[in-house]
Amino acid sequence: xxxxxxxxxxxxxxxxxxxxxxxxxxxxxxxxxxxxxxxxxxxxxxxxxxxxxxxxxxxxxxxxxxxxxxxxxxxxxxxxxxxxxxxxxxxxxxxxxxxxxxxxxxxxxxxxxxxxxxxxxxxxxxxxxxxxxxxxxxxxxxxxxxxxxxxxxxxxxxxxxxxxxxxxxxxxxxxxxxxxxxxxxxxxxxxxxxxxxxxxxxxxxxxxxxxxxxxxxxxxxxxxxxxxxxxxxxxxx
Amino acid sequence: xxxxxxxxxxxxxxxxxxxxxxxxxxxxxxxxxxxxxxxxxxxxxxxxxxxxxxxxxxxxxxxxxxxxxxxxxxxxxxxxxxxxxxxxxxxxxxxxxxxxxxxxxxxxxxxxxxxxxxxxxxxxxxxxxxxxxxxxxxxxxxxxxxxxxxxxxxxxxxxxxxxxxxxxxxxxxxxxxxxxxxxxxxxxxxxxxxxxxxxxxxxxxxxxxxxxxxxxxxxxxxxxxxxxxxxxxxxxxxxxxxxxxxxxxxxxxxx
Amino acid sequence: xxxxxxxxxxxxxxxxxxxxxxxxxxxxxxxxxxxxxxxxxxxxxxxxxxxxxxxxxxxxxxxxxxxxxxxxxxxxxxxxxxxxxxxxxxxxxxxxxxxxxxxxxxxxxxxxxxxxxxxxxxxxxxxxxxxxxxxxxxxxxxxxxxxxxxxxxxxxxxxxxxxxxxxxxxxxxxxxxxxxxxxxxxxxxxxxxxxxxxxxxxxxxxxxxxxxxxxxxxxxxxxxxxxxxxxxxxxxxxxxxxxxxxxxxxxxxxxxxxxxxxxxxxxxxxxxxxxxxxxxxxxxxxxxxx
Lengths: 237, 255, 290
Fold this sequence. Notes:
The complex is a heterotrimer. By secondary structure, chain A is an all-alpha fold. Chain A has helices at 5-16, 19-45, 51-64, 67-89, 100-125, 129-137, 142-172, 184-195, 198-227. Chain A has a domain at 29-156: MetI-like fold. The longest helix of chain A has 31 residues, at 142-172. By secondary structure, chain B is mostly helical. In chain C, the strands form two sheets. A six-stranded mixed β-sheet of chain C has the order 5-1-6-9-7-8, sandwiched between helices. In chain C, β2 (53-54) and β3 (58-60) form a beta hairpin. The interface between B and C is large, with 59 and 69 residues.
């Protein structure tokens, strides 16, 4: 085996240039998906007449199909469908000049909102009903009872799973290359294709994502410690 | 359609408005794909089940280690989780596929390079799943108020009994939805197996499309999506029933 | 609670057991070496990796067997060489490359093109194994403007994205280097397979698609083709025949030399041309050695 150290180092720095895309995609996805997911979770908890069934269907489909499939299906249909709509309505949009980043954002937001809605739902379930009852009895409106009493407690419980979901999202964004988005993985793989240096490229990918993952996990656990500092150090026995 | 080359001279080069997408979609093909893809789900399910089982056991141990009193043990467990969760699955798969036989060969001299691919895929998924599970179990255990444990012990139960009979069932309420989430995510990682030549449902879908020179992709992928959806819906229903049974008597916030 | 737990665990065990048994019978994963050799001498089993979905060069057919032109050539080589027995392992492109480099597989085929960089990592034999006839598919309405790659580049150069692993990517890059004033827009993409390229060309998402002659024949021209309804709206012109090579691990010098001897023999007795006609409908080598 002929490990090309020069390639390894060079590609590492080239791949870092893809970090803004990876991190940007992750951050925007979370920003868009989280409020939607909270809404979905609340709709299911309050058993709103028609919507809770619709949300349940949406969540099952998006959680139940591999994201690779979702990307393949949406990326082949959506731009063409948009094009057909644009042509028919005379909308002056060159659909095919749209940066594929937006298509990637769309797919990942759909997928993540479904996953997060389950995370939020399970976290909210752990908060005792008495908290909500007491808040309502004390005169808070539903909105404030949720916002100030229930959700903060649920959020703390949800943090480890949120951390999980974020790290998984970061790893999933590597699939955006299928939509020609140039993220970290894309750049490394493109560089590797000239001389078939895949071993070096995958090691570079590993290091970049490991560093990114550590950073995110550290941030989440620091946040969890800060928010949960009132908890006694819970250790076994 | 006008014959090629007949366009008005001097006309700008653009796609004629009529040439909108005319996808030759064959619903019959999509429907026929469903029964032909179904047997390959046996591989998907087998790999998922084996990895989930092994991963849960290891994850339980790691979660216990993360809550240990010894700082060193906690650090090691935290490091294990952090590394595994940040590793992209394809990288881990190649590491296991090449590194594991190399290590075994170095230690014992046995060549396991050409054992069944599924073994390596299962090992990879087990490692990944155990990291996820350690987080799920840890957060579930932490969500139960310490007072429950203290009350149980002061009521006369041994610490072990208190954990098993009082804390664990309550922790399960939080763990079950997240376990279900993780299990379903695991099942969807199946496309990874294709990277080492293990053909599961997704892999078979790719093979079918490539045999058709790239055509019939939408039909095949839709058929796959329907099958995955059905499988997941069944799994979700099962978990919902288990969750309902376990949270009997619990006053959750849901109305 | 105990009942539920017991039920869940026993179900999982049952499912795992049943499906592992089913999966075990699904496809014989142990690469079976070829038929017994005529000579009684020591036979070395050699693992040959190949692509899973690169029709018709190397793929897995409906019966789950390794099939394709490159595999057929290797089987013919295997029949000639007495001291080796080839066992075929279908796998992904990346595993193939990593495996050959690390020595897990002695050789492999993936329609690979030769470059100086790759020669540092792999051992290339003297003789190519096959040739790809690459051309461009485009809208028939543009037939007056597109006659070859140069005229296409001048027209617009919007090409369907190509995976950087394929020889086509390197081909377009080379073209761009020699035509810096009118390059082709080369967008890399990580598609497993190029799916809707024909549709994308029709609707104007892209203006052309680098296409194998055989793929165009089978998908568009042929009446049974999936895209036959588009036959009057698409056209194809050939560009180049690229020789493709089998890759060897750097330590396999003896095997590569034996392989070269076998290939020369097969070319001389016409086996290669016959196989080419069988899989491609024509002798692809004529495009290369012209």
